[in-house]
Amino acid sequence: MKTSLQLLAILVLTSTFSFAQDISKKIDSIIKDNYQKNPQVGISVGFIRNNKEYYTAYGNLNAESQDKIDEKSLFEIASITKILTTNLIAQAVMEHKIKLEDYIDQYLPKQYVLHKNLKNKIKISDLASHQSGLPDIDFGKLIELNPQQPVSNVTEETLSTLINTCTELKDYGTYRYSTIGYTLLGQILEKVYHKSYDEIITEKIIKPLHMTTTFTKDFEVQNKAVGHNSEGGIQEFFNWNVTAPAGLVKSNAFDMVAFLKAVLNKETTVGKAAIITEKIYYKDEKREMGLGTNIMTDEKNTIYLKSGDSMGQSSIICYNRAENWGIIILLTQRNSKMRQNLLNEIYDTVLK
Protein backbone atom coordinates (compact mmCIF):
# COMPACT_ATOMS: atom_id res chain seq x y z
CA MET A 1 0.00 0.00 0.00
CA LYS A 2 2.81 2.39 0.92
CA THR A 3 4.54 1.71 -2.39
CA SER A 4 1.30 2.34 -4.27
CA LEU A 5 0.75 5.66 -2.54
CA GLN A 6 4.32 6.73 -3.26
CA LEU A 7 3.87 5.80 -6.93
CA LEU A 8 0.60 7.76 -7.08
CA ALA A 9 2.30 10.81 -5.57
CA ILE A 10 5.08 10.59 -8.15
CA LEU A 11 2.58 10.31 -10.99
CA VAL A 12 0.61 13.33 -9.74
CA LEU A 13 3.80 15.37 -9.37
CA THR A 14 4.99 14.38 -12.85
CA SER A 15 1.61 15.17 -14.35
CA THR A 16 1.50 18.58 -12.66
CA PHE A 17 5.04 19.40 -13.84
CA SER A 18 4.25 18.32 -17.42
CA PHE A 19 1.06 20.40 -17.40
CA ALA A 20 2.96 23.48 -16.21
CA GLN A 21 5.67 22.92 -18.82
CA ASP A 22 3.00 22.65 -21.51
CA ILE A 23 1.49 25.99 -20.43
CA SER A 24 4.88 27.71 -20.46
CA LYS A 25 5.58 26.39 -23.98
CA LYS A 26 2.23 27.67 -25.21
CA ILE A 27 2.85 31.10 -23.70
CA ASP A 28 6.32 31.21 -25.26
CA SER A 29 4.85 30.29 -28.64
CA ILE A 30 2.33 33.15 -28.43
CA ILE A 31 5.01 35.67 -27.44
CA LYS A 32 7.41 34.44 -30.14
CA ASP A 33 4.71 34.66 -32.82
CA ASN A 34 3.80 38.20 -31.74
CA TYR A 35 7.46 39.28 -31.80
CA GLN A 36 7.98 37.84 -35.28
CA LYS A 37 5.02 39.91 -36.48
CA ASN A 38 6.25 43.03 -34.60
CA PRO A 39 10.08 42.77 -34.48
CA GLN A 40 10.37 46.45 -33.55
CA VAL A 41 8.79 45.76 -30.14
CA GLY A 42 10.80 43.88 -27.51
CA ILE A 43 8.85 41.72 -25.07
CA SER A 44 9.64 40.28 -21.64
CA VAL A 45 7.18 37.99 -19.86
CA GLY A 46 7.19 36.34 -16.46
CA PHE A 47 4.68 33.67 -15.45
CA ILE A 48 4.09 31.87 -12.17
CA ARG A 49 1.83 28.92 -11.49
CA ASN A 50 1.74 26.95 -8.24
CA ASN A 51 4.95 28.68 -7.17
CA LYS A 52 6.85 27.62 -10.30
CA GLU A 53 8.38 30.45 -12.35
CA TYR A 54 8.77 30.69 -16.12
CA TYR A 55 10.25 33.45 -18.28
CA THR A 56 10.49 34.26 -21.95
CA ALA A 57 11.79 37.31 -23.80
CA TYR A 58 12.37 38.45 -27.37
CA GLY A 59 14.13 41.45 -28.86
CA ASN A 60 17.18 43.61 -28.17
CA LEU A 61 17.70 46.15 -25.41
CA ASN A 62 18.02 48.87 -28.04
CA ALA A 63 18.54 49.35 -31.75
CA GLU A 64 22.30 49.94 -31.41
CA SER A 65 22.94 46.84 -29.30
CA GLN A 66 22.88 43.11 -29.92
CA ASP A 67 22.28 42.50 -26.21
CA LYS A 68 19.09 40.54 -25.81
CA ILE A 69 16.21 41.36 -23.49
CA ASP A 70 15.89 38.88 -20.64
CA GLU A 71 13.86 38.47 -17.44
CA LYS A 72 16.00 41.01 -15.60
CA SER A 73 15.90 43.73 -18.27
CA LEU A 74 14.61 46.95 -16.73
CA PHE A 75 11.27 48.43 -17.87
CA GLU A 76 8.96 51.17 -16.70
CA ILE A 77 5.99 49.48 -15.08
CA ALA A 78 4.36 52.94 -14.90
CA SER A 79 0.84 52.75 -13.46
CA ILE A 80 1.35 49.21 -12.19
CA THR A 81 3.02 51.20 -9.42
CA LYS A 82 -0.52 51.97 -8.27
CA ILE A 83 -1.12 48.41 -7.06
CA LEU A 84 2.10 48.66 -5.07
CA THR A 85 0.80 51.89 -3.55
CA THR A 86 -2.54 50.34 -2.62
CA ASN A 87 -0.74 47.32 -1.16
CA LEU A 88 1.09 49.78 1.08
CA ILE A 89 -2.24 51.39 1.98
CA ALA A 90 -3.62 47.97 2.89
CA GLN A 91 -0.52 47.25 4.99
CA ALA A 92 -1.14 50.52 6.84
CA VAL A 93 -4.71 49.32 7.49
CA MET A 94 -3.36 46.03 8.85
CA GLU A 95 -1.06 48.00 11.14
CA HIS A 96 -4.05 50.08 12.38
CA LYS A 97 -2.48 53.31 11.16
CA ILE A 98 -5.46 54.17 8.95
CA LYS A 99 -8.91 52.91 8.07
CA LEU A 100 -10.14 52.76 4.50
CA GLU A 101 -13.33 54.62 5.49
CA ASP A 102 -11.34 57.45 7.08
CA TYR A 103 -11.81 60.85 5.45
CA ILE A 104 -8.64 62.17 3.88
CA ASP A 105 -8.87 65.57 5.59
CA GLN A 106 -6.87 64.59 8.68
CA TYR A 107 -4.02 63.07 6.66
CA LEU A 108 -3.36 65.74 4.03
CA PRO A 109 -0.22 67.90 4.16
CA LYS A 110 -0.81 71.41 5.53
CA GLN A 111 -0.59 73.04 2.08
CA TYR A 112 -3.97 71.55 1.23
CA VAL A 113 -6.98 73.52 2.44
CA LEU A 114 -10.18 71.80 1.35
CA HIS A 115 -13.18 73.92 0.44
CA LYS A 116 -16.08 73.53 2.86
CA ASN A 117 -18.04 71.56 0.24
CA LEU A 118 -15.28 68.93 0.20
CA LYS A 119 -14.70 68.53 3.93
CA ASN A 120 -15.39 65.08 5.39
CA LYS A 121 -16.51 63.86 2.00
CA ILE A 122 -13.64 61.91 0.40
CA LYS A 123 -12.56 58.60 1.93
CA ILE A 124 -9.20 56.91 1.48
CA SER A 125 -10.96 54.09 -0.39
CA ASP A 126 -12.43 56.69 -2.78
CA LEU A 127 -8.94 57.79 -3.80
CA ALA A 128 -7.77 54.20 -4.28
CA SER A 129 -10.80 53.19 -6.40
CA HIS A 130 -10.74 56.30 -8.62
CA GLN A 131 -14.04 57.79 -7.48
CA SER A 132 -13.01 60.81 -5.40
CA GLY A 133 -14.40 63.38 -7.83
CA LEU A 134 -11.27 65.54 -7.47
CA PRO A 135 -9.85 67.30 -10.55
CA ASP A 136 -6.78 65.72 -12.11
CA ILE A 137 -3.64 66.98 -13.79
CA ASP A 138 -3.93 67.55 -17.54
CA PHE A 139 -1.46 65.12 -19.12
CA GLY A 140 -2.23 66.41 -22.60
CA LYS A 141 -0.95 69.87 -21.73
CA LEU A 142 2.02 68.44 -19.84
CA ILE A 143 3.04 66.39 -22.87
CA GLU A 144 2.88 69.51 -25.06
CA LEU A 145 5.18 71.32 -22.62
CA ASN A 146 7.70 68.49 -22.33
CA PRO A 147 7.05 65.30 -24.31
CA GLN A 148 10.06 63.52 -22.82
CA GLN A 149 9.46 64.40 -19.16
CA PRO A 150 5.84 65.63 -18.83
CA VAL A 151 5.56 65.16 -15.05
CA SER A 152 8.57 67.45 -14.50
CA ASN A 153 6.16 70.40 -14.60
CA VAL A 154 4.01 69.03 -11.76
CA THR A 155 4.99 70.49 -8.40
CA GLU A 156 3.55 70.50 -4.89
CA GLU A 157 2.32 74.02 -5.60
CA THR A 158 0.62 72.82 -8.80
CA LEU A 159 -1.22 70.12 -6.91
CA SER A 160 -2.18 72.20 -3.89
CA THR A 161 -3.59 74.92 -6.18
CA LEU A 162 -5.60 72.30 -8.07
CA ILE A 163 -7.05 70.88 -4.85
CA ASN A 164 -7.55 74.15 -3.00
CA THR A 165 -9.46 75.80 -5.84
CA CYS A 166 -11.85 72.86 -6.21
CA THR A 167 -15.27 73.81 -4.85
CA GLU A 168 -17.34 70.85 -5.99
CA LEU A 169 -16.91 67.12 -6.60
CA LYS A 170 -18.90 66.93 -9.80
CA ASP A 171 -18.63 63.16 -10.30
CA TYR A 172 -17.99 61.89 -6.77
CA GLY A 173 -18.80 58.18 -6.58
CA THR A 174 -18.27 57.69 -10.32
CA TYR A 175 -15.18 56.05 -11.79
CA ARG A 176 -12.65 58.47 -13.30
CA TYR A 177 -9.01 57.45 -13.52
CA SER A 178 -6.93 59.72 -11.29
CA THR A 179 -3.23 60.42 -10.97
CA ILE A 180 -3.76 63.03 -8.28
CA GLY A 181 -5.70 60.52 -6.17
CA TYR A 182 -2.64 58.29 -6.00
CA THR A 183 -0.38 61.24 -5.30
CA LEU A 184 -2.54 61.96 -2.25
CA LEU A 185 -2.42 58.29 -1.20
CA GLY A 186 1.37 58.51 -1.24
CA GLN A 187 1.25 61.64 0.89
CA ILE A 188 -1.11 59.91 3.33
CA LEU A 189 1.43 57.09 3.65
CA GLU A 190 4.18 59.63 4.29
CA LYS A 191 2.07 61.24 7.01
CA VAL A 192 1.40 58.03 8.93
CA TYR A 193 4.87 56.52 8.57
CA HIS A 194 6.85 59.78 8.85
CA LYS A 195 9.00 58.68 5.92
CA SER A 196 9.21 59.41 2.21
CA TYR A 197 7.23 57.30 -0.24
CA ASP A 198 10.51 56.01 -1.64
CA GLU A 199 11.61 54.82 1.80
CA ILE A 200 8.23 53.21 2.53
CA ILE A 201 7.98 51.19 -0.68
CA THR A 202 11.61 50.12 -0.36
CA GLU A 203 11.21 48.97 3.26
CA LYS A 204 7.81 47.26 2.87
CA ILE A 205 7.89 45.72 -0.60
CA ILE A 206 11.18 45.98 -2.48
CA LYS A 207 13.58 44.79 0.25
CA PRO A 208 11.37 42.13 1.92
CA LEU A 209 10.67 40.51 -1.46
CA HIS A 210 14.35 40.75 -2.49
CA MET A 211 13.47 42.74 -5.60
CA THR A 212 17.11 43.70 -6.03
CA THR A 213 16.76 44.90 -9.64
CA THR A 214 13.74 47.15 -9.00
CA PHE A 215 14.38 50.89 -8.77
CA THR A 216 12.64 54.08 -7.74
CA LYS A 217 15.58 56.31 -8.69
CA ASP A 218 19.16 55.93 -9.98
CA PHE A 219 17.91 53.52 -12.63
CA GLU A 220 20.65 54.07 -15.23
CA VAL A 221 21.67 50.41 -15.40
CA GLN A 222 23.23 48.42 -18.26
CA ASN A 223 20.35 46.01 -18.70
CA LYS A 224 17.73 48.68 -19.45
CA ALA A 225 15.25 48.24 -22.29
CA VAL A 226 15.01 51.45 -24.30
CA GLY A 227 11.45 52.70 -24.63
CA HIS A 228 9.72 53.97 -27.76
CA ASN A 229 6.63 56.10 -28.22
CA SER A 230 3.68 54.98 -30.33
CA GLU A 231 5.38 56.42 -33.46
CA GLY A 232 8.58 54.49 -32.78
CA GLY A 233 10.69 57.39 -31.49
CA ILE A 234 13.00 56.87 -28.51
CA GLN A 235 11.42 57.88 -25.22
CA GLU A 236 13.17 58.59 -21.93
CA PHE A 237 12.22 56.87 -18.69
CA PHE A 238 10.21 59.25 -16.51
CA ASN A 239 11.86 61.03 -13.60
CA TRP A 240 8.86 61.12 -11.27
CA ASN A 241 8.62 63.73 -8.54
CA VAL A 242 5.64 64.50 -6.31
CA THR A 243 3.37 62.21 -8.38
CA ALA A 244 5.67 59.22 -7.78
CA PRO A 245 3.04 56.96 -6.10
CA ALA A 246 1.14 56.90 -9.41
CA GLY A 247 3.94 55.60 -11.65
CA LEU A 248 7.42 55.71 -10.16
CA VAL A 249 8.69 52.12 -10.22
CA LYS A 250 11.12 50.62 -12.73
CA SER A 251 11.27 46.83 -12.61
CA ASN A 252 11.46 43.64 -14.65
CA ALA A 253 9.74 40.31 -15.17
CA PHE A 254 11.92 38.55 -12.59
CA ASP A 255 11.16 40.94 -9.72
CA MET A 256 7.49 41.35 -10.63
CA VAL A 257 7.11 37.56 -10.48
CA ALA A 258 8.56 37.81 -6.95
CA PHE A 259 5.81 40.32 -6.19
CA LEU A 260 3.17 38.02 -7.72
CA LYS A 261 4.50 35.10 -5.68
CA ALA A 262 4.06 37.13 -2.50
CA VAL A 263 0.60 38.33 -3.57
CA LEU A 264 -0.57 34.76 -4.17
CA ASN A 265 0.75 33.59 -0.79
CA LYS A 266 -1.86 34.39 1.86
CA GLU A 267 0.74 33.96 4.60
CA THR A 268 2.93 36.89 3.50
CA THR A 269 2.30 40.48 4.54
CA VAL A 270 2.04 41.50 0.88
CA GLY A 271 -0.40 38.63 0.24
CA LYS A 272 -2.62 39.55 3.19
CA ALA A 273 -2.62 43.17 2.05
CA ALA A 274 -3.46 42.15 -1.53
CA ILE A 275 -6.59 40.35 -0.31
CA ILE A 276 -7.79 43.65 1.17
CA THR A 277 -7.25 45.38 -2.18
CA GLU A 278 -9.28 42.69 -3.99
CA LYS A 279 -12.56 43.63 -2.33
CA ILE A 280 -14.95 45.41 -4.72
CA TYR A 281 -15.09 49.12 -3.90
CA TYR A 282 -16.67 50.31 -7.13
CA LYS A 283 -18.98 48.68 -9.65
CA ASP A 284 -20.90 49.82 -12.71
CA GLU A 285 -21.99 48.21 -15.98
CA LYS A 286 -18.45 48.48 -17.40
CA ARG A 287 -16.13 47.55 -14.55
CA GLU A 288 -15.49 46.34 -11.03
CA MET A 289 -12.70 48.00 -9.07
CA GLY A 290 -10.81 46.97 -6.01
CA LEU A 291 -8.13 49.22 -4.56
CA GLY A 292 -5.99 50.00 -7.57
CA THR A 293 -6.89 46.78 -9.34
CA ASN A 294 -9.44 45.93 -11.99
CA ILE A 295 -11.53 42.85 -11.26
CA MET A 296 -12.67 40.70 -14.18
CA THR A 297 -14.96 37.70 -13.86
CA ASP A 298 -16.29 35.06 -16.23
CA GLU A 299 -18.24 31.86 -15.66
CA LYS A 300 -15.23 30.14 -14.08
CA ASN A 301 -12.64 32.68 -13.01
CA THR A 302 -11.98 35.90 -11.14
CA ILE A 303 -8.81 37.67 -12.19
CA TYR A 304 -7.18 40.83 -10.91
CA LEU A 305 -5.22 43.02 -13.27
CA LYS A 306 -3.56 46.40 -13.73
CA SER A 307 -2.02 47.91 -16.84
CA GLY A 308 0.67 50.54 -17.13
CA ASP A 309 1.55 52.88 -19.98
CA SER A 310 4.40 55.35 -19.87
CA MET A 311 5.18 57.49 -22.91
CA GLY A 312 7.59 54.80 -24.13
CA GLN A 313 6.54 51.40 -22.76
CA SER A 314 3.45 49.36 -21.95
CA SER A 315 2.89 46.66 -19.36
CA ILE A 316 0.19 44.59 -17.70
CA ILE A 317 0.05 42.39 -14.61
CA CYS A 318 -2.67 39.84 -13.98
CA TYR A 319 -3.32 37.04 -11.50
CA ASN A 320 -5.91 34.45 -10.55
CA ARG A 321 -5.80 33.70 -6.83
CA ALA A 322 -8.06 30.66 -6.96
CA GLU A 323 -6.05 28.99 -9.74
CA ASN A 324 -2.74 30.21 -8.28
CA TRP A 325 -1.21 31.80 -11.37
CA GLY A 326 0.05 35.24 -12.31
CA ILE A 327 1.66 36.89 -15.33
CA ILE A 328 3.54 40.10 -16.14
CA ILE A 329 3.96 41.37 -19.71
CA LEU A 330 6.42 44.16 -20.54
CA LEU A 331 6.83 45.90 -23.94
CA THR A 332 9.50 48.31 -25.20
CA GLN A 333 6.89 50.47 -26.94
CA ARG A 334 3.85 52.38 -25.77
CA ASN A 335 1.30 50.05 -27.29
CA SER A 336 -1.70 49.38 -25.09
CA LYS A 337 -3.51 47.46 -27.83
CA MET A 338 -0.65 44.99 -28.26
CA ARG A 339 -0.22 44.28 -24.57
CA GLN A 340 -3.96 43.79 -24.09
CA ASN A 341 -4.19 41.52 -27.13
CA LEU A 342 -1.29 39.45 -25.81
CA LEU A 343 -2.95 38.99 -22.44
CA ASN A 344 -6.28 38.17 -24.07
CA GLU A 345 -4.71 35.52 -26.31
CA ILE A 346 -2.77 33.94 -23.46
CA TYR A 347 -5.80 33.92 -21.22
CA ASP A 348 -8.28 32.63 -23.82
CA THR A 349 -6.06 29.90 -25.27
CA VAL A 350 -3.93 28.83 -22.29
CA LEU A 351 -5.16 29.98 -18.89
CA LYS A 352 -8.96 30.11 -19.15
UniProtKB/TrEMBL annotation:
Keywords on record: Hydrolase, Signal
SUPFAM superfamilies tied to this protein: beta-lactamase/transpeptidase-like
Keyword Signal listed: yes
Matches recorded under InterPro entries: Beta-lactam-related (IPR001466), Beta-lactam/transpept-like (IPR012338), Beta-lactamase-like_AB/R (IPR051478)
Gene Ontology MF term list: hydrolase activity
Keyword Zinc attached: no
Entry-linked Gene3D superfamilies: DD-peptidase/beta-lactamase superfamily (3.40.710.10)
Protein family according to the UniProt entry: Belongs to the beta-lactamase family.
Protein name per Swiss-Prot or TrEMBL: Class A beta-lactamase-related serine hydrolase
Organism the protein comes from: Flavobacterium cupreum
